[in-house]
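To: structure desk
From: M.T.
Subject: fold request, one chain
Message: Could you run this one when you get a chance? Sequence is below, nothing fancy, just the single chain.
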Amino acid sequence: MNSTLRNLVILILCVKLIQLAVPAVAFHVFPFQNEEIYRSDNIVYPENEPVTWKTAYKTWDANHYLYLAEKGYLPRGISNRFPPLYPLLIWLAKGVAANSALIGGLIVSNIASLFAFLLLYKLARTVYGEAAGLHAVKYAIFFPTSFFFSRAYSESLFFLLAVCCFYCLTERKYVSGGICAGLLTLTRTVGCLILVPLSVCLFFERDNKRAGSLIFFPILAILMQCAFFQVFTGNAFELFMPHCMSTSAHSVKTVLHPVQWFLENFVNINYSWYGATNNVFDRIAFFLFILFFYRILRAQGAILFAYSFTMGFVPAMTDHFMSYTRLLIVVFPLFIQLALGKFHHSLILTLMLICQIFLLACHSLGFWVA
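Reply: Done. Structure tokens follow.
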């Protein structure tokens, strides 16, 4: 391992130590938010478990993943809206985590994100040079909501599979890229949209017969997932049914009514600093993303532009910006584009890290942050 890569690994591990330490410190220094409100707005697992320092490490969606890892999928379960790959990995990791789903989830997320950052460095360095590779990883680590990569959330696994998929494309390893894409569909529901950028790639590589595997494996994975839910819940489309029970239901219908979507999400709305669907930060993040949208197309090409569109723009259009600043962290072309920008990188990265620590403390105390 050369000195550059070694220093990068040290930086990643140092930031992860901070991300793992902040929740415990915040819990012992500041009061946890109203427990009654926290329980009414979220599934808590185990159901009657009191609020302790451990709660700071498994807020919000993490409880769903831990529940699924230990209890599995049941008919009409509210946690069924989460695909099975990440809970399965937590279940497997329990074997080396003292039979703790929480520790297992933290192990899976931190290992996945560590390899994802290193692969992102390799991808960006190969195409844009050493400096771009290093800065891309730093932006991915220091982004205000990147602390989710160290928590029991599926973003770290999704991020790893996405970067691996497109790295395989640059190496023209289409079978490996297709397998990674298939696993993406088993990690988050939005993973099905990987078919859009892969279709763009297939168009450019239409003379290459092996490129067809880019579409084959995701479709196969989707069919396998439907069979999985049919067996365990009795409904092949159970994955999409519980959205009606959540705070904000995804709907493709809003794409057909952009004016109504704009009015509902930017004009006729009571803004909040920490609301789930009326959050100011989510909308600021969206507009900042829009500023880089065209630059991604020019600098990184149509395939990564299509990926950025489906993972960064579509979730905003089909939802009420719920968790948008968290969903945005899997759009790795954004970090590459930031790295390519002529900015004062050190200043921006420092401000991002300060913001991240503050948001992580709030999130750990039960407040809604992405």
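Reply (cont.): The CA atoms of residues 191 and 342 lie 32 Å apart. Let me know if you need anything else for the meeting.
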